[in-house]
Design a protein that fits this description.
The structure is a homotrimer.
Chain A (H helix, E strand, L loop, with lengths): L3 E5 L7 H12 L5 E5 L7 H12 L7 E5 L10 E6 L2 E6 L5 H5 L4 E6 L11 H15 L5 E3 L14 E7 L5 E6 L8 E4 L2 E3 L13 E5 L4 E6 L4 H5 L8 E3 L1
Parallel strand pairs in A: 1-2, 1-3, 3-5
Antiparallel strand pairs in A: 4-5, 4-6, 6-7, 8-9, 9-13, 10-11, 10-14, 12-13
Helix pairs in contact in A: 1-4
């Protein structure tokens, strides 16, 4: 069965996620909907692209990612459907799907051609992307035409991003680096602070900073019984140095 | 199919929304439930009334709004069911449905007569309003008697409220003014700051404050690439001046 | 029908709850899932144990509590299934189920023996506990062996905890004391501030602190039209004095 996963920077509060879900319930009744991220880096398609690529691969085939980090809504950025191997992605063509596409074997791309009766200037997530995600969940063919330009590509973005891309509820700081690309001896540094790799929190004394492979494969900086963001001054965009 | 939308000031955290949903799942299995607002202005039935009226009209017919902004819970305020055109509203009679009722063609009102086995003093949302919403979702007739007094009416409240009624995750400040009641030339002012109308964010230089019709029809004050609440000192209750 | 209730300290944001729900939707399609607490006291199994015991009793028989407050994840703490009267609990054996077990008539305990294909070091909620909860929701027998040791017991924890265990969205402070164990004349004190019992908020003048039986049976300290946490300096762990 198809499942729809929401990946947005709408925040947890407010009506935006609820309105999108109302569209999905009406147009694709019975389809499970999962909130993956409602707090992707606000308006930051680049950091979000690395987060989405890492987390979406954990999901089963046929999952549809309704992905809305869309600071250019109402402007000229394209509106896309991407099929990357067996998973679907719907959202703005602002680089958000760059890493998903680069890391899959086979990607297909469509420009959305379907138009809603009423398209607000500021909420394409509800008016355009959610209906398209619902169509895909129902098994409809992608309502668009194969894409013929590459304005949504970002070939200059690296394969892994040596920056903090997300801070979680525990204060742990995810990087845009896949742990599998790093060795057991790799150290990560922020300014003059250097972090060794550990397996998990219990391996180190309280208060010690370290990095580890998080449960979805990203290199993540944490402090045992502490909060890496506060204790180490990390925030989204902080640059990381990789010491092989 | 009926859908239940939750509109509360319970906040996102804590057990309250979850307990209400447990009641709904038990009493109306399979009914889609959507979180519309969990962060309506706390204890502020007036601001909430304008927010609910604007957002509920976006939803399809037969939607049931389980609406709990209820600072007087445990006191003497009535407990109501309102049918406004094709939509249902369940909640406290403290003015919360004043604008919904005023803006519809045909409103019917009931005092809830059904009583739960156990009614807590502080959580009628779970014990009284959620069961009644579930009954309506199942297609039961309203479990009450037609209402014969007007203690829940607020005839002194204006048709549109020239105040900030909600701040969203992006820092945008919604007013209680319907954009359709304003002209393209209308300016909104807060103190000595005056804002022109724009179509959307991209139309203005970064850092510029403006107002626009948001995706659900309210006049909303925003700052391109900024946060209107911080940059302009806006909060719930801030008065707005309308300059026609 | 079975229902799964989530009780975690994962926070509202981030991917953790969503990933657990994706597992549940895949393995137990159609089972209602309710977010009970996503903000249980972080890493605090003791305070969480009193919160879980109070709130889970409100739920119907057959509910499955997927309970993850698990600071020792990746270490040696056991992984448990507990059946307490008619309800199921799945989670770490770190004391989290101590009060649930102590307050029921009949408890059965299993060590989880099922192993996932891939078990991350830091997220057993997703990889181990969610699949087991899904199996129970489907009606499978508990995938474990009856438990033969008591390392997860905490006989030194009191039957009721005279501490603040949760602060809600309104600033109200829940204690770990069941109101039913206290008399109408019982007063609660924090330092030199003493609080009388009231029925509900409206019974007292604005600004007055008091305690009352909350909607789920816990003694809770509140301030009419105020915020008990700020106004009275209460936080999780603040000790309460019971004056009979």
């Amino acid at each position: 069965m198809a499942m729809i996963a929401l990946f947005t920077d709408f925040g947890l509060q407010g009506p935006y996620t609820g309105q999108m879900k109302a569209v999905l319930h009406q147009m694709a009744p019975g389809t499970p909907i999962v909130d993956l991220f409602a707090d992707a880096p606000i308006g930051n398609a680049k950091a979000s692209a690395y987060l989405l690529a890492a987390y979406s691969l954990w999901f089963p085939p046929r999952t549809i990612f309704l992905s809305v980090v869309d600071p250019g809504v109402g402007g000229t950025r394209p509106a896309l459907i991407v099929k990357a191997d067996s998973r679907w992605y719907v959202g703005p063509g602002n680089g958000l799907f760059e890493l998903v596409r680069r890391r899959c074997d086979d990607a297909l791309n469509w420009d959305i051609e379907w138009k809603p009766e009423r398209l607000s200037a500021s909420f394409h997530g509800r008016d355009l992307f959610a209906p398209v995600a619902a169509m895909l969940a129902r098994g409809d063919p992608p309502p668009g035409r194969p894409r013929s330009d590459a304005t949504d590509h970002r070939p200059d973005w690296p394969d892994d991003l040596a920056e903090i891309i997300y801070i979680d509820h525990f204060g742990n700081a995810m990087t845009g680096l896949r742990a599998a690309t790093l060795t057991p001896d790799t150290r990560l540094a922020v300014g003059d602070r250097v972090f060794e790799r550990a397996r998990t929190f219990g391996d180190l004394p309280p208060g010690t900073g370290f990095w580890y492979e998080n449960s979805t494969g990203l290199a993540e900086i944490a402090v045992n019984q502490g909060r890496a963001n506060f204790d180490l001054g990390l925030t989204i965009g902080t640059r990381i140095q990789v010491i092989p």
